[in-house]
Design brief:
Chain lengths: 314, 314
């Protein structure tokens, strides 16, 4: 007797096939949802920011000149963006003065110098530092950094809020980010490069600074750019520690309170119930948000491009 | 002329030459550099230690006077003696539950699509780039997304400024992190596991469900718990979505009414207490920060424990 194999013997039960197709579509939908979030963010920011500019330009308001004049007083219709950008630059600059040497120092030490056992203990501690919520560091800035460090070192500093204290706290938050990206970049440098250097008689110092660091330079620059991007986007520290909640004039002094892009947004969103009707304060939130989004996106793309370059080389 | 080496010289000359070649030179420069690197490391650890000591020291009065009262009390930014973090802890836990329910399945599903289905298609590359960029978007921008989409556009579903809107904003925030970490965990599962299942006739969905996902679970859990800690510590998004910062009274309404009403979270109440002047509120802020830090570090600890406990080498 012969057995004939038909097509139905080779295809599975419809139930299993349908489950398979269903699963594929469900997973695909989940992937699409992440794209949807990006589209929604861009649409939200762009539409409301445009709305803000259009309303600002019409006859009832003072025109677009308020965007680069006087100061940031959203409740009074003065939206000087330069005030915010200046504050952000000061905070980010101070943050990088703190975070760049410390973050890179930690990275070089962990990747090139630390004994394996020590590294195993210290690495999780650095990860703990990365896990500290930003509000807690905001508190630390006003409770410790400003009174115990800033006002003691600089006699003219504001007693309660300074951009410098906020900058240092933001820097502390940025250390682990720079450290971990830079350490990855250093570890990606192949051992053979170090061995070649040792083989020629170089010591660790020379190998590290003349061979390993130059080889990992694009990853290190990427770490710094990512750090800058995080520092610019950091909100709660500046919202708590930089003062100037309602608004402020252009300030060039890091020892005085100031306003940054993110702090201004937090202040506006915080009181958004009270902002009513004709006042454009609420819409300005989206305009500043769009600016912030574009700046950080450009920095992140640049950083990602540099990281990929390291990966392609080795 | 024959080459003279220590072996050919013999006697004292050989000993001197060997000593000169193998002597450990004291190199001041490399000592200095090593010292600087160790100091960078030590300073980073010292900052963390200072932060924790400061929090414990300053919150001591709260823990000795009214620990239970504080842990169960209501949000109150006017009267420090009556203020607590009970509602805030509850709010943060509910926010975490929403993140677990929304962001985790969505993020893991997206990762499964990217790793198991999409291959190297254009759609996959687009989604990957998009997820990487989303991970770098400042958290406050997710607050704007929440405000415009979940609070305003979808107010019928979420009820406006409720814990649902806050939870959805946080879900959008951690989604890219979940996708990235889950992708890494899936990528670590060796091909042979999949081929074993496919070889005995399982469909792709059955392979994923019964082989790939169980093998990747420890890695996925590690990443998701870490992202949950991030969500618990974020203040900016829920602040913009409208978490309460002043007074919050929860009457004797049912659970559902409470969920549809105003809410707060731990990071937001820290922000709210930090803005108040006076020593009482300073201690209160420190105590609330300590509670948040313990909560977040516990989650980080669980994540590290999971990684060590189930770490698998294929």
């Amino acid at each position: 007797m012969s057995t004939t194999i038909t097509e139905s013997d080779l295809t599975t039960a419809p139930k299993r096939r349908h489950a398979d197709t269903g699963a594929r579509w469900a997973f695909r939908a989940a992937a699409v949802s992440t794209l949807a979030i990006t589209v929604l963010i861009i649409l939200t920011l762009a539409v409301d920011a445009w709305d803000f500019l259009v309303k600002l330009g019409d006859d009832e308001h003072d025109g677009l000149t308020v965007l680069w004049d006087l100061g940031w007083f959203p409740r009074r219709g003065l939206f000087d963006i330069a005030t915010l950008v200046l504050g952000t630059l000061i905070v980010t600059g101070i943050a990088m003065i703190v975070a760049a040497p410390l973050g890179l120092g930690v990275a070089v030490y962990l990747a090139e110098y630390a004994p394996a056992r020590f590294r195993k203990i210290v690495k999780p501690v650095i990860e703990v530092l990365a896990g500290v919520p930003s509000v807690v560091l905001g508190y630390f800035a006003i409770a410790f950094i400003n009174p115990e460090i800033i006002t003691r070192v600089f006699s003219g500093a504001n007693q309660a809020f300074t951009l410098a204290a906020a900058g240092i706290a933001v820097g502390i938050l940025t250390i682990p980010i720079i450290a971990s990206v830079a350490e990855d970049a250093l570890r990606a440098v192949p051992m053979s490069l170090r061995e070649a250097s040792y083989g020629l008689g170089a010591e660790r110092l020379q190998s590290t600074f003349r061979v390993v660091l130059p080889a990992a330079i694009s990853g290190i620059v990427a770490a710094l750019i990512l750090g800058i991007s995080r520092a610019i986007g950091e909100t709660m520290v500046v919202a708590i520690a930089a003062g100037a909640v309602g608004g402020g004039l252009r300030s060039y002094d890091p020892l005085q309170p100031g306003q940054t892009m993110t702090a201004a947004m937090a202040a506006l969103g915080f009181g958004s119930d009270q902002v009513a009707g004709d006042n454009l304060a609420f819409q300005s939130l989206y305009f500043v948000g769009l600016l912030l989004f574009v700046i950080t996106l450009l920095l992140n793309v640049a950083s990602g491009w540099l990281v990929n370059r390291v990966r392609e080389v080795y | 002329m024959a080459l003279s080496t220590p072996a050919t010289m013999g006697g004292a000359a050989a000993r001197d030459l060997t000593a000169a070649l193998t002597r450990r030179k004291f190199d001041l420069r490399s000592k200095v550099v090593e010292f600087v690197l160790v100091s960078a490391m030590a300073l980073a650890l010292l900052i963390l230690l200072t932060l924790i000591v400061d929090l414990v020291y300053r919150s001591a009065s709260v823990w000795s006077d009214r620990p239970w009262d504080f842990l169960t009390g209501n949000l109150n930014s006017q009267n420090a003696a009556a203020a607590g973090v009970g509602q805030a802890i509850r709010g943060t836990l509910i926010l975490c539950v929403i993140v677990v329910v929304v962001a985790f399945p969505l993020g893991i599903a997206c990762a499964v699509y990217l790793e198991e289905y999409a291959g190297n298609s254009r759609f996959a590359r687009l989604t990957q780039t998009n997820v990487r960029n989303l991970a770098g978007v400042p958290s406050i921008v997710y607050g704007l997304l929440g405000l415009a989409i979940f609070v305003q556009a979808l107010s019928g579903v979420t009820g406006g400024r409720t814990v649902f809107s806050g939870g959805l904003a946080l879900s959008a925030l951690v989604l890219p992190i979940v996708v990235i970490t889950a992708s890494e965990a899936l990528r670590a599962v060796p091909r042979s596991i999949r081929e074993g299942a496919l070889g005995v006739g399982a469909t792709q969905w059955e392979t994923i469900r019964s082989h790939v996902l169980p093998s990747a679970t420890p890695g996925i859990l590690t990443g998701t718990v870490l992202s949950l800690a991030r969500a618990a510590g974020e203040a900016a998004p829920i602040l913009l979505v409208g978490a309460a910062t002043g007074l919050l009274r929860t009457g004797d309404q049912g659970i559902w009414q409470q969920l549809r009403g105003p809410f707060t979270g731990l990071p937001v109440s820290i922000f709210s207490y930090a803005r108040q002047p006076g020593q009482d509120f300073r201690s209160l802020t420190a105590a609330a920060s300590l509670v948040l830090l313990v909560l977040v570090l516990m989650m980080n600890g669980v994540s590290i424990w999971l990684r060590n406990r189930y770490e698998r080498k294929w």
